Amino acid sequence: MRNSITTALFGLTLLAVLASPARAEEEPPLELVDNPPDRHVVVKGDTLWGISKRYLKSPWRWPDLWGMNKEQVRNPHLIYPGDVIYLDLTGGSPRLRLEGDGPGGLAGAGRGTGVGSTVKLSPKVRSEELKSAPIPSIPASAIGPFLNRPLIVDPAQFDSAPRVVATQENRVLVGTGDDIFVKGLSTDSPLLWQVYRPGKPLVDPVSKEILGYEVIYLGDARVREFGEVSSLRILSSRQEIGPGDRLVVSPPPDILAYSPRSVAANVKGIVISSADNVISEIGQQQVVVLNRGARDNVEIGNVFALYRAGQVVVPRTLPNSMSNDEHRRRVQTVFAEQDKGSNKPEPVILPDERYGLVFVFRVFEKVSYALVMNSARPVNLLDVAQAP
Fold it and tell me: Buried (b) or exposed (e) across 187-198, using 16+ Cβ within 10 A?
């Protein structure tokens, strides 16, 4: 039950604890879009980011719009379909608040159902619709496949990972229900493992350091018997498994609260890959890989702005006039007027263009996954990501 306005202001479907660190710099005032709606009825499919986009020019600042503080992020409450949200402009900063009879709305408190109130009960048949799922911060379906699988593996982990050395009946490839034989496990190793196949290395485009290896998730397996060569049964497989494939421990489910905030101003990254195997022109709601991770102080919830490097252009000059008119033959470009000593215009570097936002939802040691939330143009590899 949500028992106050402040604890009922926001919702997160991925239920866990994420402390929002104090901002080193004071945020600028919230800037509303033109003609924001007075009220919004929450429907299935809404997200907190999407709702805030109706109100804010910087939708990633929805924690400020909801008036969230650090304690509320540590103990999140939920917003459900059916809740009615209204924009409160009476204070010094705009706020979104709840009203009405939706789950956790404020009408119930007004009828004497708040903490410490006395309620007179009488026998009656009560019919109540089961609660819907709370709305998520960002689209859960877009990031689900990337939460609990080791899609990026550190080079050291890659080299030491247990390896499939043989298959049942010495077949080339096996699948669900078949056995595989693995070297590198000990009797105190976990029972549940994920099987993956090495993919391409992720190389920092500036330092040329190998940041990790993208891997292809193949399936899940369980140990049947430990030994110098251990026997495992494949519980499920997305692709067939064979000798040379590697194992990593199945991680516990990631249950995280996503509270967006700007990345530090001194952190500047580059888009180095797409987790969806898109070669170019990555679109909205797709996942990109940034060359910055935990060692660079990137955290879950960080928001980066995307920039396209300014093009290098050569000013175009007017062609020589073939006119018989004496004055037209003397027409010169502005460039030629400014630089009498040169017939060749010098290249000009145009300013970098900001065109979108990405939201970090999973962080590895040297790289991170980010979801493209807003984009006015396709994302390309080597585009720059920095504080919005």
Answer: eeeeeebbbbee
pLDDT (tens digit, 9 = 90+) per residue, 24-47?
356 678 888 888 888 888 888 788
CA dihedral 274, 275, 277, 279 (to 10 degrees): 0
Q: How do 302-308 and 261-262 pair as beta strands?
A: parallel
Distance CA 306, CA 23 (A): 21
Q: State the DSSP H helix or E strand holding residue 147, giving kind and residue range, or none if neither.
A: none
If we measure between CA atoms, which residue out of 170, 160, 182 comes closest to residue 232? 182
- Structural tokens at position 321: 């006039």
Q: How far apart are CA 89 and CA 32, in angstroms?
A: 11
CA dihedral 35, 38, 39, 45 (to 10 degrees): 20
Of 288, 285, 354, the C-alpha closest to 138 is 285
- DSSP tag of 301: T
What is the bridge-based pairing of β-strands 269-274 and 353-363? unpaired
Q: Across all residues in the chain, what is the average pLDDT? A: 75
Q: Give strand ranges (E) for the chain.
A: 39-41, 84-88, 95-99, 152-153, 163-167, 179-183, 192-203, 210-225, 229-237, 246-249, 261-262, 269-274, 287-290, 302-308, 312-313, 348-349, 353-363, 368-375, 384-386
Sort strands 84-88 and 229-237 into parallel, antiparallel or unpaired: unpaired
**The two three-digit tokens of residue 313, written as one number:** 């252009």
Tell me phi and psi for residue 216, to 5 degrees: -105, 120
Low-confidence ranges of the chain (pLDDT < 50): 1-24, 73-76, 101-122, 124-130, 255, 335, 337-338
What's the angle, vertex CA 29, arms to CA 94 and CA 307, rounded to 5?
A: 120
